[in-house]
Amino acid sequence: MSTKQTTKEETDVIDLYELTKKVFYKTLQLFFRFINFLIRNIVIIAILIAIGGGLGYFLDKNKPDIYKTEFIVATDFDAAEYLYKSIEELKFGLKHYNDSFMNELEIPKEKAAKINLDIEPIVVLNELNKEEQAYAEFLDENIEIEQKERLYINSVKRHKLTLYHPDDIDSKEYLTKIIKYLRKNDYYQDLYSLYEKEANRQYKSTTNLLSQIDSLVINYSNSFRQEKYTTPGVTYFNSGTVMDLGMVLENRTLIQDDVNRLLENTITSTEFLKIIDKGSPRNLEHFNPFSRKMYFYPVLLVLIFILIKLIRVIYRKAKALS
Question: Are residues 174 and 243 in the same domain?
């Protein structure tokens, strides 16, 4: 029984060796056939490579340069959702040349076909408070990417509006027209007008409070008498008046932070979709004599040639069998 089992195993090993040898020889034979095919058609292949390289060079050389210009705009009161929706509508209008949009923007049809818009939020993590950071971490773990991006949008104050265009377009003028068009929203115009008045009132009130605290500290400093005794954080005057300087200075720091925040809000909220920065056009694509097209077209033409040869071989064999 043991002898039969050993003989069977030896037979299986020999069969496996023979099969492996046949596969190796077949592969080697196909490889040499392919080399022989290349040698026999070297002239045609060289011509196809030259034609493909020349075609790729010509297409790259004559392709117009693409530029991009970026504006940074500020939003508040959940206006970001309106901004992104309006940009999507404008992108559709540019692609299909919607007359109602383009006539109001004064963008000719031949120019609209050459430009495109994009917008993205500018997320600054150190501007988020603890609750917003915890909410962001929750979104990262539990929400799909597309939904997460939408939820982020309304919590972000600044957004980057990008215009892609050729060199012969005044991108700053076009972006300014686009933002002017987007501002034509009665609800947000009224809301920002009221907020501007309230922000100015709060700023003046807070700065007055800050001035009163400064005056209070100066008056107490001037009322120091030569005979006084102190304990850490508390100054006692002979007159019986007591002031916690540490607490006053701490409150003054908090109020100063409020003043800075109100000043920033007052500046950014003077108008709906406040333009914070106007970028200059930048070239996205430069001519490269060794670009991907220089390799793509030669390979494509050679593969088409090989495919035609293969189809002819299959056709001849099928015709012979019939």
Answer: no
